[in-house]
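tool_call predict_complex ligand=adenosine-5'-diphosphate
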Amino acid sequence: MTTDAPAPQPTWTPAWDRAEGEERARALFTATFDARPDGVWSAPGRVNLIGEHTDYNGGLALPIALPHRTYAAVARRDDDLVRLVSAQEPSGVREVRLADVAPGTVDGWAAYVVGVAWALREARHAVGGFDLAIDSCVPFGAGLSSSAALEAAVAVALDAVYAVGLAGAVVDGAADDDAGRATLAGLCVRAENEMAGAPTGGMDQAASLRARGGHALLLDCRDGAVRHVPFDLTGHGLALLVVDTRAPHSHVDGEYAQRRAACDRAADLLGVPDLREVAQDADRRAQAEAVLAPEADGDVLVRRVRHVVTEIDRVTEFVTRLEDGDVHGVGPVMDASHASLRDDYEVSCRELDVAVDAARAAGALGARMTGGGFGGSAIALVPADAVEHVAEAVAAAFAREGLRAPAFAEAVAAPPAG
Ligand code: ADP
Ligand code: MG
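tool_result ok
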């Protein structure tokens, strides 16, 4: 006879309230630089509700900004020196001269920060040196975009201390200069792509800078247009549970590059600039399989394209249901998204599948992996009074499967960087 091990208690990653986050960053700044910062700015991580691996295909995505934020205490300097410290990086103070900065010259986390200053200067904004202290409650490498939160916090801080004039203000959870923020988001993408060397499609930075409190951000990745879709789960007795699988992901970059390459190749073969073109053209959709299947890797291409095209449909369906007030109805759309990512796009992993299956079995209305995949986080739409129960069930499933304990967070649609 075996005795059951005691059920593991779920570990929660709470969001700090603003005052706490600001005070932490300010205290680190003062302890490090023995001076007061000009101010503290912050930017949220994000979680994507639906529309995965669509951004680099010119498709649609639907992220919300998380209540979890990265806080940046910053003081402008008179020279071109950048000194930076992060509570999440034990390596101490890094120093970089902006005059020496070019792609490939700055490694590690400093590349994200210096990259934003570099991108602003490349765009002819008069940005010079600064001292900066970072603290954050956005989980690292959990698919919740701590990198974009870091870039966006630095971007709005530099916008303020160097009077760049792109970030505007945030009033009642809404940014008042979306066009300026779209430009800033583009500069953050340059920082991440060219300085940090991470190929990302732009959804993360848009969410952190352009989202609205209480709303999901419908992002058209072809032209960068956005629409704010009311996303009020509490009013419907629901909650969004985030499961950080803490799965060690080692091949993410290579797999991501392969998926992008497959989509580019399929678009070439189909004679279109991007797969969005296929999604919105009935004739092209009907012909895609016949064109791609004869290729040596035809089976793979057909499935990759099917995911992208149907995922774009699902974003539209999800938004329609939200706008019709059928919030419960988005659950099955989430389930279909997960199946497509798992079977056609092949970017799920055991931990993500265990999280999704266990959440559904415990009463979630829908669940899916979110972010690029191969680890990272899953989300589950759950009755508000079942959040704890579903988290316990997922934690128990991980223990049963011999997986590292996951971490949990509750997500509400929070305000953007400011
Ligand atoms: P994700 O964005 O999903 O959290 P990424 O791999 O894109 O994961 O970005 C994580 C990287 O971003 C970290 O390895 C680190 O270099 C940088 N980073 C994010 N947040 C911080 C922080 N608070 N302090 C220092 N570096 C950070
Ligand atoms: Mg990232």
